[in-house]
Amino acid sequence: MPSYMLKSKKNKLVLGITGNIACGKSTVAAMFKTKDSQLIDADLLGHELLSVGCGVYKKIIKSFGRGILKANKEIDRAKLASIVFARNESLVRLNSIVHPVLIREIKRLIRNSNKKVIILDAALIIEAGLSKTVDKIVVVTAKRNQQILRAAKVSGLNKGQIMARLKFQISQGKKLPFADFTIDNSGSIGKTRKQVLEIRRKLWKS
C-alpha cells in the first residue's frame, strides 16, 4: 500500500476532481481510483436525493410543481433542467434545496470512510463551497468545441442547451486559480492517463 503524504491534522487525503460540463472529470476521477481509495460521485448522490418520497424530492415538487413529474411520479430531470437553466433564479432556488443536503451527505461519507484517500467527483466543488472540504483540487479542462460535441453525444442536448448550462457554471479560466493541479483532457485517453499518473506521483510516494 502506498505511503500517502497526508496532512498532519488528519489521516485522510481528500482529492477533489472538478470541471465544467463534458470536460471528462468523471473519467479522470475513475483513473485516480485504486483499491485503497474511495470514490464519491456527487452526481450520483444528487440523483439519489431526487428519489420519490425523500425530503429533497418533496421540497422540489412543492417549489416547482407537479408538472415536472413523470407518470410514475419520478422527477423528470430533463424537464426540471429546462426550467432551471432558463432562469438563474430558478437554478438558485433548486440549488438552495439540493446543495445543503448533498454537502452534508458528502461530508458524512468522508467522515465515516476508512480509506486513506477519498476522491470526490463533483462539478460544483467551487460553486457549492466544497473547496474547504477537500485538501487538493484537480480541475479538468477541455476545449469548448470538444465540450459541446461530447455533451451532445452523451446527453442529446443541442448546442443552445449546452451553452445555456455552461453559462451557469464558473468558466474554466476562473476555476484555474483554485486548482492545485490541472489536467487537459483535450487529447487522447493515454495523454490524460499520463497526467493523472504524474499527479499521483506528486501526491503520494511509493
Explain what the structure shows.
- By secondary structure, the chain is an alpha/beta fold.
- It is built from 9 helices and 7 strands; from the N terminus they run ββαβααααββαααβαβ.
- A 5-stranded parallel beta sheet has the order 3-4-2-5-6, sandwiched between helices. Strands 1-7 form a two-stranded antiparallel sheet.
- α2 packs across α5 and α3 (55-64) runs antiparallel to α5 (88-112).
- The relative contact order is 0.22.
Structural class: alpha/beta
Number of strands: 7
Oligomer: single chain
State which percent range the strand residues make up.
5-15%
Shape: globular
Radius of gyration: 18 Å
Key traits:
206 residues; five-stranded parallel sheet; two-stranded antiparallel sheet; globular; disordered N terminus
Blueprint of the fold:
Elements: E1 3-4, E2 13-18, H1 25-32, E3 37-41, H2 42-49, H3 55-64, H4 77-84, H5 88-112, E4 117-121, E5 136-141, H6 144-155, H7 159-167, H8 172-175, E6 181-184, H9 189-203, E7 204-205
Parallel strand pairs: 2-4, 2-5, 3-4, 5-6
Antiparallel strand pairs: 1-7
Helix pairs in contact: 2-5, 3-5
Short description:
The protein is an alpha/beta fold and 206 residues long.
